[in-house]
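Pipeline run #58 for the internal structure catalog. This entry was flagged by the ingest filter as a single-chain record with no existing model, so it goes straight to prediction. Upstream metadata was stripped on purpose; only the residue string is passed forward. Reviewer on rotation: M.T. Logging verbosity set to normal.
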Amino acid sequence: MTISYRTRFGGVACAAAGCAALLGLAGCSGGGSPSPGGQHTAAPTPSTTTPAASTSSAASPGPAPTGTGRSAASGGDGSGGNGAHGVATCTTSQLRVATGQRNGAMGATQVQLVFTNRGGRTCVEAGYPGVSFVTGDQGDQVGSPARRQGGGYSSVTLRPGGTAHATFRYPQVGNLPSGSCKPTTVRGLRVYPPDQKAAVYVPLAVRACTARGVGVGEITAMRTGTGTVR
C-alpha cells in the first residue's frame, strides 16, 4: 500500500510518497546580498499547484552541511534582510521550489531549480541557493554540497506568482570510477534559498557519489524566469 501525505519543511510544503522525516535538517544560508550587477523583475507565472496552508511554526536550524571547496550549501554572507530598493528578501516560506527542464550531455546532467513566489507580496532573490543530495528517512546528506559556478550576480524581483531559477549541474556517476565515487541512489535535494536558514526538500531520484569531494555538483546564481537547459 502506498501512503501519500503532505508535510512541512522549513516553512515550505513537500508532497511525496514516503517523504517521512526526510526533511529533517536546516541550518545554512546559500547566497549573499546583491552585488551591483543590476536588477530584473520576474513576471507572474500561472501556477498549477495549490500552496499548502501556512503555519506559524518555523524550522529549527540544525547543523549545516559541510564540504570542501566553495560550496553553495555552506554559510552565505548575506543577512537575509531587505533586498534591492527596500524590497524584502524572499523567505523560504514564501517560495515554492521544484525541478524544471532537465538535460544530460557530456557526462553531466543539468536541471533547473525553479523558485516561485507563492506569497502575496513582492520580494527579491539574489545570490546562490545551497544544494545537496539527501537520502533516507532522516534526510542524510550524500557527498559534498554543490559548488558555486560563475562570478557576479544580479538581484531578481519576484512579484506574486513570479519565477526565478538556478541551474544545478551534477556528474553522471557512470562516468566516474566506482571505487572512488561510491555511488548510491538518492531521494532528492535539500535546497536553501539565498540568505535563508530553512531549507526545502525537492524530489530527484538519481545516482550520486557518497564520497566527499568526488562527483561534486555545481550551482549557478539566481536568474529570472524558469530557465532553459542546453
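catalog note: Residues 22 and 138 are 4 Å apart (CA to CA).
catalog note: The radius of gyration is 16 Å.
status: ready for reviewer M.T.
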